[in-house]
Amino acid sequence: MISNFIFPDILLYLLDMVGVIACAIAGTLLAQHKGFDIAGCILVSMVNAIGGGTLRDMALDRHPLFWMTDLNYVIVITVTSLILQIFFHLYHKIDKALKFFDAIGLAAFSVIGFKVALAQDVSPVIAVMMGVWTAIIGGLLRDIICNEIPLLLQREIYITASIAGSVTYLVLDYWGVDAITNEFMMLFIIFAVRMLALKFDWHLPSIRLVD
Amino acid sequence: MISNFIFPDILLYLLDMVGVIACAIAGTLLAQHKGFDIAGCILVSMVNAIGGGTLRDMALDRHPLFWMTDLNYVIVITVTSLILQIFFHLYHKIDKALKFFDAIGLAAFSVIGFKVALAQDVSPVIAVMMGVWTAIIGGLLRDIICNEIPLLLQREIYITASIAGSVTYLVLDYWGVDAITNEFMMLFIIFAVRMLALKFDWHLPSIRLVD
Amino acid sequence: MISNFIFPDILLYLLDMVGVIACAIAGTLLAQHKGFDIAGCILVSMVNAIGGGTLRDMALDRHPLFWMTDLNYVIVITVTSLILQIFFHLYHKIDKALKFFDAIGLAAFSVIGFKVALAQDVSPVIAVMMGVWTAIIGGLLRDIICNEIPLLLQREIYITASIAGSVTYLVLDYWGVDAITNEFMMLFIIFAVRMLALKFDWHLPSIRLVD
């Protein structure tokens, strides 16, 4: 039965913030690349970091939105974006680290979105979708604002990693694994799938190429 | 007086599913064309098929969203998109059929959006807008994600067909026509206007060209 | 303490309508430029004029949305867009006036978004964000639909003007200035900063250029 998540919430919160910082960095980098000004870069980094959770909360009718009651999100994003803009010339040194932090964010965002949806008593299928949604919508909106074709739809194991983690959770939960262990498993699997995909250049096929 | 829609709801539901399938096909085709992978194609087809209704429900504060309580939507879209991706090489054979099904979808989506809005006690003008909204936002979002200029804003009798149907409904309702007949009329008019526009290549002028 | 906005609401409503008209004009002009048809131009002008307030109300869970209970918005936008489309050849004569009206709109939209958010008991930081949000999201959505890179993120003192006004309000409020005076001040400062930025070609730096 899916219920009663008990989890070291502090850890999840910290991983969430790591994801927020990674998204803020990714948003600022793309915005800088597009020649946006200071305010524009901060705005894009906010969209990237909290856009997914915002739309999830709106879809699930959870009000007030999570970042309205916890100002840490807005503060962390703004500070991250400003620091990065000042030290933009160090960009090439952070690219690799960014992918690492981004994978942490993908895992944390997926778990949070999945948990939040289950707590609203939606069906497991919808909860899996909400995990994906929370994890990817921010990056999608960033690319849309910057007038780019979303990379994550093209060649990245991103959605797949999130789904793999959620499905594992559901299966283990069905087998009676306790919630804490299970949530750690979910975090780990999403992170691992994503990092392995980056390392070995895995990507989903575009089926069109097959025929 | 506008009230008490009584309608063979089963028929409307079936037409809705036809529209969902048409949208899932259209979304998958464009996503394939853009080189998106399997997950990306499914995501775009979901946005195309349920994006309009999702934003309508969020605007009207109807929760839970329609596809959260009826998993058929998610299942039908995913299966449609997967089948199409596997048989993509048959694409050229479905183009004509797609336009037919898409017109059914336009009619069904418009009627549903219009009815849902009236049931929330909004003014008739807003209900007409919500019919249009439900019918077009999905396609708009699809084009935005795929970084295309939305075709439907350029040269298609699409919004106009939806408005024509809604206004007919309102007029006939004022004249005392019963709801069932009226709803059939609305479905038929939208479908007919759209098909005739395709057949005779009607399109709204861009007034700019006049002067 | 931030509370009890008492303001000549009529004036604010009129300024709001000025902003709505300016946005409807800006949306129609861009849509015409893109070759959209009559319905497409009206749709883009609606998105531009009421898109920001719509998303603000959805984020703050204020229902029904403001334009659902006051049809003036939809009517004013539609009429404005149609008139402009008919007299599009006069475009070059309205460009300068547009910037003036747009600055009024920026001020009015910011004040309204800021007030609405405060009335929902959010923190001041979030209220400042909601002022910005109301003022810019419409234009952002317009550019996204028209497949343009949002200008306002690149080189305009726009977000900054809105923030300057909100922060002034908060500071003066803390110092005990009464709400009416304060709201006039906020309107004036946003308008003045925007007009001065246009006149003297101020823009925020893109920090990247510094290093």
UniProtKB/TrEMBL annotation, chains A, B, C:
It comes from the Bacteria. Keywords: Cell membrane, Membrane, Transmembrane, Transmembrane helix. The chain crosses the membrane at residues 12-31, 38-59, 71-88, 100-119, 125-145, 157-177, 183-202. It holds the Pfam family Gly_transporter. Residues 14-87, 100-172 form the Glycine transporter domain. One of its GO terms (cellular component) is plasma membrane. It is a multi-pass membrane protein. It is found in: Cell membrane. Belongs to the UPF0126 family. This is Putative membrane protein YeiH.
